[in-house]
Design brief:
Helix content of chain A: 10-25%
Shape of chain A: globular
Strand content of chain A: 25-35%
Oligomer: homotrimer
Strand order of the largest sheet of chain A: 12-18-17-16-15-14-13
Number of helices of chain A: 10
Number of strands of chain A: 18
Distance between the termini of chain A: 40 Å
Radius of gyration of chain A: 22 Å
Chain lengths: 392, 392, 392
């Protein structure tokens, strides 16, 4: 088969940011299970609108407790379905009462007479709930088995688990690139406290190595012989990292974070925090800490961060994401990458783009994409100093 | 004369929504008197800006009490005229003092010298006040006689009359279509109170007949031999319906409602309520009821209705319009109708579109349009159960 | 050299409003020093974003106290620089620590290794602080000497000086045109108090003469033999006028005002008030007056002015600019001038446009533009009645 001509660089850079249903990236991302909501955000018998990769959808939870994801609009007059009502495990449109199963199959069109509903179908996507998140498979064909590269960290006994979702008003890819860019830690995560550290920090740039694995990209950031940080990023958009706990003696936190396009100018930052239980007192303090600080979304404090330059209080649940937000939103919502100037320290970003371009080209050419798999031998994630706690 | 080629369906559907001065629909709508404001909204000596069918206008009331509708901007430097001042029955621009009569004729251009004003004219449209509404004729040529298909209902002695105007942020045509769609009543107007009624309602779909009349379309909705509802919709955008009063013993209410494009993405829902007087106590209660609930505009409560799903209290003045709002706004502001899927119960909508396409084609071809006339023998509007009270 | 074909009038009118870096007007305006900020708005060690003629910039003040104006974004990943931190007289990006001098030269790229910074440069523009304003030269080549046509009025001993900046959401050129239009004074500045004056005012139209000078345009407005107002407007966007003081016995105020495009739909109204000192009591009252009323920006009161038609209290610092705001914003943000109808009283505007078109054509043709110079013999600015106090 003849290979398609590579498009010019500006077009190739733009393609990384385009995630709609008909885009190459959109088709690639739809081959993977993606988290789209936090489980507790939708109660049995309720429905709500959702936008994922430029597609408007209806998320509802049947009276049985099972969650479903169907098209955003009724096939009939294009009214949004979430304003209708859930009956059993189906959803009925409020305009003329057309009813749909979770598969998208119309099961009733009251004024149209018997037999008509069977010919009507809207989109309906497989849903899988895991660890307090609702995952969906928006691709064509049969959904792949649900898996995660380091899932045992979320499945151990005795974990305290929190799920969180934020929407950031920028393209998903600059959030992905930030995960493969360990240099930013030395600067971004000092931004709010610069004064005394300002001069010192430039000495602490890590040596960085990036290598493609069965699951994605492994990043090794060496700051000294006793400070080596290994991060296993999973294709196409999942980061699993370990960060310090609430206090010096608190257990470390496993964090699985996905960056899922809402549309090309907005991104879900959605994920799980899993913390080993360590006694009722410490556990209660952990829960209180998350209740107090965990709902902070920097996007709600945009002007404070960009113009007033005031920073939030809690280092791990507020300040770190706020700093990342400023670095990422500071590039604009959809960035003209043809204007940027990468350096040798951007090796991770360069590898990341190459892999995405390779996979998108396969899709365009009708060739099989890589069969990504969970890591057989995941490295232990090292403990490291609080100062270099990576952003998620 | 050769008939113009019918445009493809997507274009034809789009044409129903385009109401600007140069559009086919815009030229058609401008052949009719249209209500554009509520009389009490403009006091003698005052002026305000108004947008009608995509055209910016200045509405002012002369010191004599008479209302005028002229262009939005001064001919000179294009400053909006409503910021100027009314002098006698003319309006003067605040920038350089050019003065205009209600016909749009410039009567004074102070710094330009004698004789210059006579050569300057802006748009000026005939105005007719009726039943607390300000109607205007925005077409070319001489305005037709002002008439209404069922005007006697608004002109009887002893009526209590209320006029109301709202702006809904959607295209006018989906509001028109809702008037010719009796099925929606069985679902939309249960939306806020679903629970117990959910299953029962699907049995109550009416048998529907639609027929073109001299004035527009007559809709006959038969729910049972004792529940027949006849609605006479008047071309191009006026509905006259009768709905239950405040209490079981209150007199029924005649409502004349027009859906007039502000522009293609906004619509005036403007009309009159006329209620027979029935004694001082009942009349006072009626006035209090309208004062308390009558200013409710669902567009001011968009998120409450769509996201919080909380509904307003009063059934006729708040809940019913709120339910219609959700059904109509739920389709989006300007809907891509090529994506919808009409059924046999949409016969009214199909007839409606056919009539509009026929009239628009006549305009495009330079042939005369239909001469619509008031109904010689209007059917009595039947009393019906409160549950099926139609939306306006 | 062959002259370029004049573009049709609509295009020529549009060109007056287009100020981006590649536009003819943009290139012309960039040949002059332009005020872009008020000095006290930026403290040593701080940075803030700024938009000038469609270009995003970073204004920062080094620890030395000197102000610098560099590009808005880091060359590396395009993050906005103002979120970084000022170190000495340089600014460091918060994302990966690239550091820039005030010339735009990169002086450090920490993770890229020695020698890399020298090859990186972003925009950096000369800055000159004067009278509480920060001026910048955004043109190519060496900046011209900094000069003002009537600078001695701002440099006398014993002046009280205030600097002010507002952003109005409209194109710069309609603000310029208002300066060359003395007729507006008779109407615009009565708008808020019309009643009794309404009829009288039309008699007070001045005789107007406009002539091109070495510095710009001189406007002579003759209202009577004892009421002659001379205004020297300096090319391309500076007005120097004298207006009445706070009370009848207060000294008159020299005002230098520039209208500088933020972008094509927003304009800085930026300038200096200079008031001769006249004893401690009067001086204190002057300061109090400016503190109380001087921060009023009509753009913050748009709906009050356009819809509620309520006017602010203080005549010179609030009402006069509010009236001008209504006249200028009332034309829209970017006006389609092909729809307007100029008269003989618009001679100033017509001369103004001719001069700009001539200069823009020279730029397009690669010919030298006029060498504007300060006025050798500036006329004394006459005292005039408070009623006709011109807008700035």
């Amino acid at each position: 088969m003849q290979r398609s001509q590579p498009s010019p660089m500006t077009e190739r850079l733009r393609a990384l940011a385009a995630t709609g249903p008909d885009s190459d990236m959109g088709r690639l991302l739809r081959m993977f299970w993606q988290p789209v909501a936090v489980s507790h955000s939708i109660k049995p018998g309720n429905a709500k609108p959702l936008r994922v990769m430029g597609e408007d959808l209806t998320l509802y939870r049947g009276e049985s407790g099972r969650a479903y994801l169907v098209a955003g609009r009724c096939a009939h007059r294009r009214t949004v379905l979430h304003t209708g009502w859930v009956q059993g495990d189906e959803i009925r449109c409020m305009y003329h009462g057309w009813k749909y199963a979770g598969t998208g199959q119309c099961t009733e069109a009251p004024a149209e007479g018997a037999g008509s509903a069977g010919r009507i179908k809207i989109a309906g996507y497989p849903v899988h709930e895991y660890c307090g998140l609702i995952f969906a498979y928006l691709g064509s064909g049969v959904a792949p088995a649900f898996d995660l590269p380091r899932k045992e960290a979320f499945e151990k006994a005795g974990l305290i688990v929190f799920s969180r979702l934020q929407i950031w008003p920028c393209n998903w890819f600059q959030m992905i690139e930030n995960s493969l860019d360990a240099v930013h830690v030395s600067f971004v995560h000092l931004a709010g406290k610069v004064g005394p550290f300002g001069e010192a920090v430039t000495a602490a740039i890590p040596k960085l190595d990036y290598v493609e694995t069965d699951a994605g990209i492994r990043q090794v950031a060496t700051r000294s012989s006793t400070n080596v940080r290994i991060s296993d990023w999973a294709f196409p958009n999942n980061n699993h990292i370990v960060t310090p706990g609430r206090t010096k003696t608190s257990p470390w936190i496993h964090r699985g974070v996905w960056n899922v396009p809402v549309d090309d100018a907005h991104t879900y930052k959605i994920g799980v925090y899993a913390i080993p239980s360590s006694g009722p007192e410490e556990d209660r303090a952990t829960v209180e800490h998350f209740e107090k600080y965990g709902d902070y979304n920097p996007a709600d404090h945009h002007d404070e961060l960009f113009l007033d330059k005031t920073w939030p209080e809690d280092p791990s649940l507020q300040l770190t994401p706020a700093q990342d937000y400023v670095a990422m939103m500071g590039q604009g919502d959809i960035v003209d990458r043809s204007q940027e100037r990468l350096g040798k320290s951007d090796a991770g970003i360069i590898l990341l783009r190459k892999i995405f371009w390779r996979e998108m080209e396969a899709i365009r050419d009708g060739r099989p994409t890589k069969q990504w798999a969970r890591l057989e031998h995941a490295e232990d994630l090292p403990i490291q100093s609080k100062l270099s706690a990576a952003s998620i």
